[in-house]
Specification:
- The protein has one domain.
- By secondary structure, the chain is mostly helical.
- α2 packs antiparallel against α3.
Amino acid sequence: MTKLETPDFTKAFENMFSAADTSAFADVFKNATEFSSKFSDIAIKAAEKNAELSQAWTKETLSKIETISKPQSDPSNYAKVVSEITTAQAQATPEHLAAFAEVAKKAQMDTIELFMSAGQEAKTKAETAVKRATKKAS
């Protein structure tokens, strides 16, 4: 009985990859990392702005609540102070929420611009590749 030997594909793979143009893979990786970096930048800036808005809203709320802790001469004054704070908060809430909405809107628009730019860049590269392939074929 003869022994079957497993073919060694190492040399075949080495030849195949040495002949291949790996610059396309490098370009894809470079473009993906650049896109990811830009996308992360949009998200981080939105998160930072949201943190700033939250902090400002919290400070504003705490400064209003601080007035409750001050002694009042008449117990009914506590109800008046709480009512004033509640009214002020109710009036300020839409403004604060609108600020958060603006941050979200800006992040959304920046993301759309990024995707549009990436799509246009991909289209341009594809057109260039097709033109190159057409020239080689003819």
